[in-house]
Specification:
Layout (H helix, E strand, L loop, with lengths): L11 H34 L3 H38 L2 H28 L1 H8 L3 H14 L2 H17 L4 H23 L9 H25 L16 H33 L3 H38 L2 H28 L1 H7 L4 H33 L5 H24 L4 H6 L5 H14 L8 H13 L5
Helix pairs in contact: 1-7, 1-10, 2-3, 2-5, 2-6, 2-9, 2-10, 3-6, 4-5, 5-8, 6-8, 7-8, 9-14, 10-11, 10-13, 10-17, 11-13, 12-13, 13-16
Length: 471
């Protein structure tokens, strides 16, 4: 059943119901994860603002790792969703094996850096010796969690693409509760365990990763989910398939790595501010995760609902769905931001901010609440393009504006004009309105529908002719 006849009235009931089926479990999982991070921050707040700031900077290193592997997640989900729509089991297995191989290579590299040279990492992010030492002790343990987390992410991406969204949710729920439980025991030394402080928080993250992966595997075996454990079929690649995969992944990979490096450069600027500002940034990043939790559900819904129809050759349905997803996303993000603003006062205090750091944190939330409406619309459009086979356009836009507009503005404001911290922070989003206009024009052109499955390729000519797109 489609949510629209070729030229008929759009069926909003069908559309919203299927968004909910996919988006709500993903959003709940990420919301729980972010809530767990908030609880961690509240626990660490008792150890002082320096500890909160140090762990926040370590989280920025994790974000760089995220940038390193997310290109393969995005490329992999493109293939998973389209092959799922085309009912091509062999294509799903081969693309999962290739995605998993590249992602694990990234995991090994970042685990080595965290475990082997944590001093080098912390020296990049901040010039405050006390914060550096706290971060080093944290990285030397949390580095063991990276391989577990990335493996779980690869499995979750596949499960969501084949519309098995509840299993990652179960794993996420178990992981969050495990993380909070182990952190409580190990940070404060409860029930006879040693009081480990920030090292206890790191060990709690590792143990939560074990729990998450264990839950995923349990339900995969219990429900006899195909693809994930069919190892003998994962690595049947030929040169043509690897070439097609890398061709689609390369723009996404370049996007995530270069944007990750750009964000790292921004975080270096933010990490060389006052200790009060560093603590406020760490808390803000945690609260930002609440907004991203809502967004991530829409991101996965866009990937599956659009990519599946493109793979099946139903391009007009995919086109109509994509346009509506963007506006629904902005409406939901606006609601999430409003909710955070309403309760920001007790939240910021509970997470250890007071006085000057509280004022900075409040200002950051107000700025972000406006910027996020446009920012998440851009992200949704980019994810939609990728799922439909156009991995280049959004990536080129994001990279170009980051390096030609955002970074110059941030660095000039900080090092040349010595602008106030909140103005520097606001300039991190200066490109979003301009990009939104360009991305909307591309959305309505329909040129982003580029199928990789044979079923999709057979019907693309008719779609392009109908919309006046050059063949």
């Amino acid at each position: 059943m489609n949510d629209q006849n070729m030229y008929g009235k759009f069926d909003w009931h069908y559309f919203l119901r299927h968004i909910a089926i996919i988006a709500v479990p993903v959003a709940l999982q990420n919301l729980l994860t972010t809530t767990g991070s908030m609880v961690d921050t509240m626990m660490l707040a008792s150890l002082g603002e320096q500890t909160v700031g140090a762990v926040g900077l370590c989280a920025q290193f994790s974000s760089l790792m995220f940038a390193g592997y997310w290109g393969f997640v995005g490329g992999g989900m493109l293939f998973f969703a389209q092959y799922w729509g085309a009912k091509n089991d062999d294509g799903i297995n081969r693309s999962f094996g290739l995605t998993l191989s590249f992602m694990m290579a990234v995991a090994v590299i970042f685990s080595f850096l965290a475990l082997g040279v944590p001093e080098f990492i912390m020296n990049i992010y901040t010039d405050k010796p006390e914060i550096q030492q706290i971060g080093i002790s944290y990285l030397r343990i949390v580095g063991f969690a990276y391989i577990l987390q990335i493996l779980a992410m690869a499995v979750s991406a596949l499960l969501r693409s084949i519309e098995q969204v509840k299993i990652p949710l179960y794993g996420g729920i178990a992981s969050v509760f495990a993380n909070c439980f182990f952190n409580y025991l190990l940070i404060f030394g409860k029930f006879g365990l040693p009081k480990m402080g920030v090292r206890g928080a790191a060990l709690g993250t590792v143990l939560a990763g074990v729990v998450n992966l264990g839950i995923l595997l349990f339900f995969i075996l219990k429900n006899k989910i195909p693809y994930v454990l069919e190892f003998s079929r994962h690595f049947r690649w030929d040169r043509a398939f690897v070439g097609q995969y890398l061709q689609k992944c390369f723009p996404i990979l370049c996007n995530e790595i270069l944007i990750g490096v750009g964000n790292m450069m921004i975080n270096i600027v933010l990490g060389h501010q006052s200790e009060k500002a560093i603590a406020a940034v760490a808390v803000f990043r945690t609260l930002e995760g609440l907004v991203i939790a809502f967004f991530s559900g829409f991101s996965n819904a866009a990937t599956v609902l659009v990519g599946k129809e493109v793979g099946a050759g139903n391009h007009e349905v995919a086109f109509q769905r994509a346009k509506r997803l963007v506006y629904l996303c902005s409406a939901l993000i606006g609601t999430a931001c409003l909710g955070i603003i309403v309760v920001h006062n007790p939240l910021l205090h509970a997470m250890g901010l007071s006085g000057e750091s509280y004022g900075i944190g409040t200002g950051m939330l107000l700025i972000y609440s406006v910027a996020a409406l446009i920012r998440m619309g851009n992200w949704t459009q980019n994810d939609t393009y990728r799922s439909a086979g156009d991995a280049s356009f959004g990536s080129i836009m994001e990279i170009t504006f980051m390096y030609l507009m955002v970074l110059p503005c941030v660095y000039l404001a900080n090092y040349v004009f010595h602008a106030p911290f909140l103005l520097i922070f606001a300039l991190c989003y200066v490109d979003e309105p301009v990009r939104y206009i360009i991305m909307q024009c591309h959305m309505y052109s329909g040129e982003w529908v580029k199928p990789v499955s044979q079923e999709g390729i057979r019907t693309i000519g008719e779609f392009r002719q109908r919309h006046g797109i050059r063949q």
